[in-house]
Amino acid sequence: MKPGLFITLEGGEGVGKSTNLQFMQDWLQSRNIQVSVTREPGGTELAEKIRALLLEQHQESLTQQAELLLVFAARAQHLQHLILPSLQQGRWVLCDRFTDATYAYQGGGRGLDIQMISMLENTVQGSLRPDLTLLLDAPVATGMQRASKRGALDRFESERYDFFERVRHSYLQQAQASPQRYRIIDASLPLPDVQQQIVEVLTALITL
Ligand code: TMP
Fold first, then answer.
1. Quick one: CA dihedral 174, 179, 182, 184, positive or negative?
2. CA of 201 to the centre of ligand 1 (A)
3. How far is the CA of 59 from the centre of ligand 1 (A)?
4. Residues contacting ligand 1 via CB (< 6 Å)
5. CA–CA separation, 147 vs 195, rounded Å?
6. What does pTM read for this prediction?
7. SS (H, E, C) 145-166
8. What is the pLDDT of residues 46-68, one digit of tens each?
9. Distance from chain centroid for Cα 14
């Protein structure tokens, strides 16, 4: 059987990933494509527990190394128990964030060594990389305004403005370095215009 495609959605806080992931799922399913929708960190029982550890505020500070290792521990569970089996069954996987988020948040945001991230990526994923990545890009201020309306901020959302500038910069750099895999979507536009850009990308993909 032909393996499914692995599509990831990336972007900073408040750029509309959830709404647009739902839109992509509906669009693909209405064209008879079987889709598994999932997210990182998370996606399986244990990976969701690791997600809670990463997102909750704790008395004891989480070290940057522990954060990085937890992100990859969740990813190892997610790959083994959800992503790889789905792809092998011919299902497409739509994933809300993946390793590009580690390069953006732990690499760009926290300033951790990119070589170390790359070593963990190769160890956990082997040669697996997304087939396509949509980057929802919007100015940091726009995204933070939207995110702050959603209620209590999690451990990442509570970071300072310049952290998110570094995250955005890293994403844009990654997109520039991998133009074959990346499509940048202007997420600062009104929702119908954002979704029009997404439809164009998906239409090109299914008519390949
Ligand atoms: P989200 O579901 O709202 O996107 O929250 C997940 C948070 O986790 C988000 O702030 C980004 C962060 N994150 C990392 O720091 N590194 C990673 O590798 C991933 C997947 C997410």
1. positive
2. 24
3. 20
4. 39-41, 71, 97, 101-102, 105-106, 156
5. 20
6. 0.97
7. HHHHCCCCCCCCCCCCHHHHHH
8. 999 999 999 999 999 999 999 99
9. 13
